[in-house]
Every structure is written in structure tokens, then in C-alpha cells.
Amino acid sequence: MMANPAHDERLKWIYGSKTNAELEERYNQWADLYDKDVEDDLGFMGPKIVAAALAESVDKTSKVLDAGAGTGAVGEALAALGFEHITAIDLSPGMLEVASAKGAYETLQREVLGETLAFEDDAFDATICVGTLTVGHAPRSSLDEFVRVTKVGGLIASGMRPDHYETGGFKQKQEALENEGRWTLVSRSAPYQMMPTTEPELMYETWIYEVLV
Ligand SMILES: C[S@@+](CC[C@H](N)C(=O)[O-])C[C@H]1O[C@@H](n2cnc3c(N)ncnc32)[C@H](O)[C@@H]1O
Q1: 45-60 confidence digits (pLDDT tens)
Q2: CA quadruple 151, 153, 154, 157: dihedral sign
Q3: CATH assignment of the domain containing 26
Q4: Does residue 75 have its Cβ closer than 6 Å to ligand 1?
Q5: What confidence tens digit (pLDDT) does each residue in 148-205 have?
């Protein structure tokens, strides 16, 4: 299937947001159509692939933070794998409302990545973030909070485009966290197609780190 011009327009509109307030409002407006556009029509594979990678190394009883949960595709994937204690956070209440209806999350709350999260240190056994460490969305400083709220020995899994890893400052940030002894790399996948049927040239990577402090 080819990409649909309406989707291209919607993605341009989202990525054209200049502030978090604008991004929040645009995601609120998109929330009801998001699953149809991104999961059904575009066939975004990130949530299932990154959730499956995390599930290989984390006990199903774990408390998992889904950061930038959107409409809950990651939560659904984790719930299908047997996870029951998942917390969703997102900038957009509209997206969280759709996520809530899926029944995969124990808790859902509005939080802004890049700011201090309203969780205690070590609150989670694992953190997962898919589709949100991207252009104009969550900044690289979000990773500091992922490390803080994830227990020592816990895992942080993320899905990201390799081009944004290089150009969005994530390479420097991820290496800095490693050099500071705050986390260590467990695995970095080979690049894979994030939307194989509609945008075969767009690649994605799954990263998993273990928290050290
Ligand atoms: C492309 S969607 C991905 C949603 C979901 N993780 C998935 O894979 O289907 C990106 C989500 O990130 C949220 N988002 C963007 N910037 C954010 C920020 N700074 N803090 C929290 N959420 C943010 C948006 O509201 C949106 O729901």
C-alpha cells in the first residue's frame, strides 16, 4: 500500500508544531483517528517490536512505565504478552483517553517528557518509549528522568529512528549516560523497517539499557 496524502498532511501538521502546547492540542485533535491512520493504514510496527524486545528480559509482574503512550499501542502489546502493571504518561489528555479505553493500563496521567516527572525515584522496574523520542517531541533530557524513575537493574527500552539518534542529540546523550556510569547498553537492534508496507525506506532501531544507579 502507498502512503495516503491525507496521512502525509496530518504528519506534517503534527511535526510542524512549534510548542508543546501546540503539539498537545494537535494530538488531542488527532486522537480519535490516530489508530486508524498510524496502526491500520500506515502499519507502524514499533510498539509491537519494542514491547516484545522488552518482554524477553523483564518479568511479567514488573511495573512498567510507558512514556509517550499515545493511544496505548505499547500497553496493548505488553498486556497481550501478560503484563498487568503498566502506567501510561503522555502530553495529550485526548490520546490518554483513547488509551484508557483499551484497558491495558493500571494508571494513566498527563506528564511532559523533558520536565520532572511526578514519580518517586525507582518507581518502575522498566520504562518503555516508542515513537516519542522523535523530531519536535520528547527531548533527549527525557532520558535523565527515565533513569531516575527506573530501579537499579531495571531496563529502559526505546524505539527510535537512526537518523534522529544522530541528529537529535541522542547519540551524545546516550553515550554520556554510559560514560557517567548511569546506564549500560544491553542491546541495540539492527535497523528494521518501521512501516514496511507503506514507507519501506524509513528505518527504526530498538535500544535496551540497564540502569546502574
Ligand atoms: C507518535 S505518538 C506515539 C504513541 C505510542 N507510543 C505509539 O507508539 O503508538 C507520540 C506521542 O508522544 C506524545 N508526546 C509528544 N511529546 C511529548 C512530550 N514532550 N511529553 C510527553 N508526551 C509527548 C504525543 O502526545 C503522542 O501521544
Answers
A1: 999 999 999 999 999 9
A2: positive
A3: 3.40.50.150
A4: no
A5: 999 999 999 999 999 999 999 999 999 999 999 999 999 999 999 999 999 999 999 9
Average pLDDT over residues 73-78: 98
Q: How far is the CA of 86 from the centre of ligand 1 (A)?
A: 16
**Over the chain, what is the mean pLDDT?**
96
Give the atom of ligand 1 at the shortest distance from the alpha carbon of 129: 6
Surface-to-core class of residue 6, CB atoms within 10 Å of its CB (0-12 exposed, 13-18 middle, 19+ buried): exposed
Residue nearest atom 13 of ligand 1, based on CA coordinates: 68
Residue 161: what pLDDT? 98
Query: Which atom belonging to ligand 1 lies closest to the Cα atom of 111?
Result: 21
Domain coverage including residue 70: 5-211
How many Å is the Cα radius of gyration of the chain? 16
- DSSP H or E segment with residue 192: strand 192-195
Give, in order, the Cα–Cα distances in Å from 112 to each of 24, 31, 63, 166.
10, 17, 20, 23
What is the domain count for the chain?
1
Residue closest by Cα to atom 4 of ligand 1: 70
Ligand 1 pocket test: pick from 40, 91, 119 the residue with the most ligand atoms within 8 Å of its Cβ.
91
Which residues are CB-contacts of 78 (< 8 A; sequence separation ≥ 6)?
51, 54, 55, 64, 66, 86, 104, 128
Ligand 1 touching residue 92 (CB < 6 A): yes
Contact 168 CB / ligand 1 (< 6 Å): no
Q: What is the pLDDT of residue 4?
A: 74
